[in-house]
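Priority: low. Protein: SseB protein N-terminal domain-containing protein. Input follows.
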Amino acid sequence: MARVSGPLAPQDRFAGRVIPTSAFGDDTGEAPEALAAVLAAYAAGEADDADVLAVLGESRLLVPVVAVLGEVEVDENGLAHDKSSDMATVLVTGRDGRRALLAFTGQEALTRWRADARPVPVATQLAAASALQDGAAAIVVDIAGPVRFVVPGDDLGALARGWELRRVAGGHAWIGVEAE
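Result:
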């Protein structure tokens, strides 16, 4: 049996590995039309929270990831250099101490907030589930505009379960099948 030493050839680096495809492989980074329209109507007072939540549940969001410094090393001249860094989603803490996951409708809105953040397109259900898993009490959509929208507690949980928001007499209700 022959042994190979040294680095692998570029074409062999990923041999045997499976790289999953994204459900949003052809995403252009534009805000979904229906979501942009309902948020504009919401800002104009022509739509309410329920209208936005209903569309949001069927939409894609961009969750930003940013580099977070892991370790720093100091060279012989006393200068600090990054030794390692990680990528992380962004949670913000409100004045009341509750945390929220940031998400954006499109690349333009994300860039308004922070141009160096990398967008990860995900279904709103996954963003909501991730927020809950990270201990967040809400998702803040488009924190830097054009229209900021907050998805709080009960609505966040319903979106994470994949429930649908429906209008009923006198208001609205989340409809879904609870897992046994």
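The first strand starts at residue 60 and ends at 74. The longest helix spans residues 33-43.
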